[in-house]
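REQUEST FORM: STRUCTURE PREDICTION
Request ID: SP-0412
Submitted by: Lab K.M.
Chain count: 1
Length (residues): 169
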Amino acid sequence: MASGAGHRRAHARRRPRASIAAEAGVDQRTVYRRFASREDLLAAIYEARLTAIEKAIEDARLREAPVAVALHRYVENVIAVNRTWPVDLARMLADESVRARRDAAVREVDAFLERATDEGLLRPGLPEGWASALLPDLMHLVARQRPELTAGQAADIVVDTLLHGLGTP
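STATUS: Completed
RESULT:
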């Protein structure tokens, strides 16, 4: 149930559960029976998004796969998550337990980006945290502005932009 509701733009700020149910294509009674409040519904959506992010990181094999392969796989997976669970991250991160899980995922990706720098995929000498700040923004941008692309095609653009920038060679 949370999957369907999350899939259909449950990120709106003050939408009643009935509106979310209608957009998700489920009967509002199902939503009311399953979730005691709008906050419970959002908590289920946040839980599902976090679980999907954790799965995306695990599936990318950031610690053991070749760096270029892991980078593309991670980006592709996260773009798919961003499209499936387009939630308001600021609201989502207001919850301490959610923030703790998200921070653990960020640390995992940061360690991977350090590995990518150590192995020569990313240029050394950039300001600290630059790649960590830029990568999520690129993924969100392509997920929102290029919905016609598959997650793989969108990942191609993000990875190419991250590794080569916008200038000519």
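NOTES: The chain is about 70% helix and 0% strand.
Reviewed by: T.R.
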